[in-house]
Amino acid sequence: MIVVARPDSFRNRDVVSVKDISREELELVFDHAREIKKEPSKFRDRLSDKIVSIIFFEPSTRTFNSFDTAAKILGCRTVGFADPSASSYTGKGETLHDTIKMFEGYSDCIVIRHPMMGAAKFASEVSGKPVINAGSGAQEHPTQALLDIFTMRESFGKMDSLNIGMLGDLRYSRTIPSLVYALSKYDVRLNFISPESLQPRPEVESFLKSNGVKYEKSNDIKDSIKDLDVLYVTRLQKERFVDPTEYQKLKGSYQICKDSMVGAKDCMIILHPLPRVDEISAEVDSTKHAMYFEQARNGLYVRMALLDMVMGK
Ligand code: NCD
Question: Which of 25, 154, 165, 178 is most buried by its number of CB atoms within 10 A?
């Protein structure tokens, strides 16, 4: 089926999973983000009659603040919380359903992060206002995938034929499934590099197989470094390990340093959704490959683009 992307494809739409977004629609977001990045001041205050709820039931630095800043540059007012202990949900036992109903009443769009898989989907079913998933347990983080691909596209001017390595905790990370689902719409080759127990979850692998995505697995970066255009690194998702001894065993089992990049292409970029713990050594920051701070900055433009497309005229 050919999905026709219209300029208003995102108006009033929930953004819960990247699986629901076609390649043409992804490109609309990227084109808009590019326009915004070129001249952010042109987009200032264009949603000054809108209110955005940002409700985070899990800690965040970048995602919360980039949504908050994006909304404010566009002129929206924001309500919500970054710390669930300040809400009745945690403090008084209010249900997620009722919390969503409150914010639906106060605002034009709800941005939600929650530790449970399925929470954003549930919120979108409860709310008549559009819901944007800012992270649902280990399941998905669609706006992170958008800014990850935007950064690759800005670096290479294309996506097709890129060779993309993903290194680290590919099992408990939610950025990996979203990135994989979004990349499956392009003609790319994926390399999963991690200890066996941290390879992508079975549902991600079966998605790859049923969508005919080319991929390889290895547990050593040396096997693939020379072929990679992108190296996407993730931290060990300590908070999601069911067994703390398993976490202790894997702690420190991978780290990218200058030496790991011997043989890499000159143009290879290193991405990381951040926060980083110890998986990329600080000496990498000053190399031409390090693109993760630029990637985090791009989050602002991509989230501005999305908010504008969901709530704009
Ligand atoms: C990621 C997340 O929350 O999943 N962070 C982010 O949003 N930039 C990655 C992580 O926490 O490791």
Answer: 178
Mutate to test the pocket of ligand 1, among 148, 171, 274, 294 (most ligand atoms within 8 A of CB): 274
**pLDDT digits over 272-303, tens only?**
999 999 999 999 999 999 999 999 999 999 99
Rounded to the nearest whole angstrom, what is the distance from the C-alpha of residue 269 to the centroid of ligand 1? 19
The answer to whether residues 300 and 293 touch, using CB atoms and an 8 Å cutoff, is no
Give the closest residue to 274 by CA, choosing from 26, 34, 66, 32: 66
pTM above 0.85, yes or no: yes
CA distances from 242 to 12, 138, 152, 172 (A): 37, 12, 33, 10
Residue 141 CA to ligand 1 centre (angstroms)? 8
CB of 168 sitting under 6 A from ligand 1:
no
Instruction: Name the token pair of 243.
Output: 């067994």
pLDDT in tens, 167-177: 999 999 999 99
